[in-house]
Design goal:
Layout lengths: L1 E2 L1 H4 L2 E6 L3 E6 L8 E6 L6 H7 L3 E2 L8 E5 L3 E6 L10 E2 L3 E2 L3 E4 L5 E4 L14
Parallel strand pairs: 5-8, 6-9
Antiparallel strand pairs: 1-4, 2-3, 4-7, 6-7, 10-11
């Protein structure tokens, strides 16, 4: 489990009468900003997981500002759009990385798994 330190300095925990505790931006966050990732092959920091649980789920995709991408070994969290100061962090439905098809020399289609270790460029959303 890894959470970006600059991200942590950009949010605060607040309470909401209905939602309970949640994360709000104390400064604007750009689209594609890496929040953190969960490595499914290693033990994760319980404190970091508690912080990530403060990102509430929304069923209204128009309100979602965090995207969660599930890979085979890592779950990646990043901003889906620009988040304004004072805005609560809301995650939409998580997405699964799909296998990419690759045609072999013999014409057969081979399945190639997407690598979780691919570097994410700032501003890129997977």
């Amino acid at each position: 489990m890894s959470i970006d330190g600059d991200f942590l300095r950009s949010v605060e925990v607040t309470s909401h009468p209905v939602e309970g505790s949640l994360l709000k931006a104390i400064s604007s966050l750009p689209q594609g900003r890496l929040i953190g990732f969960i490595d499914k092959t290693l033990p994760n920091d319980k404190n970091a997981l508690l912080i990530l649980n403060l990102i509430k789920e929304t069923h209204d995709d128009t309100k979602a500002n965090v995207v969660i991408t599930n890979g085979s070994t890592k779950t990646i969290l990043q901003t889906a759009r620009k988040i304004d100061k004072g805005e609560a962090l809301l995650a939409g439905k998580s997405t699964e990385e799909e296998d990419e098809e690759e045609e072999g020399e013999d014409g057969d289609v081979k399945m190639e798994e997407i690598e979780d270790d691919e570097e994410l460029e700032e501003g890129e959303i997977k």
